[in-house]
Predict the structure.
Amino acid sequence: MITEDRVCFGGVHTRRLAVAGDETPIALLHGFADGADTWRAVLAEFDAAGRAAFAVDMPGFGHADRRKPGPILPQLDAFIDAAIADTGPVILMGNSLGACVSVRAAARGSSNVRGAIAVDEPTLASHWLMRLSRGRSDPFRVLERRMPIPKRLYHRAIRGTFARLLYADPAQADPGVLARFTVQASDPSQTRKMLGDARAVALETAGGYDSEHVRCPLLVIHGRKDRIIPVHASERLHESVPTSTLVVLPRSGHCPQLDDPSGLARHVLRFLEMGEK
């Protein structure tokens, strides 16, 4: 059974979803503009397997406190460090932005990080979208102009865009998931802010990782049909940590936890079982 409560890590009040079980708990970190709810189906799989796990909303997302002004990644890093100091040893598992935060935490070498699982990691991508985001000019400034788009048409376009970005097959998109994302981009000004924050993260991570400092077991997973981040980003992470394991999911997109939660959980549990023998 998934339980829900309020917790505070490093002064940030947030929501936690959890399942009870054995072994070192898996701490699940969501992607950009997402929240802990994205992991519900995976949490159910871990619950069925008897594996302890919990998911939290990171600062500025979901039901967590807002972030403070200034750089984003240092705030997320401090939040995760406080969380694992409070909860004790964990396996960090993150999707997209959560994968970035997980690998950064592993590279800091805390003894409480017993392993890391990076799902569709974005930082090492070098495709056109990342180059555009990290360019000198802001490509999203066009959204500051007034655009006479009917609200119904705008919302339909936003829902369709999220369906294509999150899922391998947009036709299989969960309406509840799309609603959760769409409400954050209900008008062009909100969309502009969301994309501006995403660009800020891209700029903050332009230097990549100190991956040579990752000493804990690392599983790198990527959806072959990811339309946001190509597989080469995870391949580069895998190559930079020779002891890591790479798994490419042929039928998943940017969020395997939405496309194939049972398959994702199966790969994770198999990896952890091998390391815990």
In short: The domain at 3-137+209-276 is CATH 3.40.50.1820 (Rossmann fold). DSSP finds ten helices and eight strands in the chain.
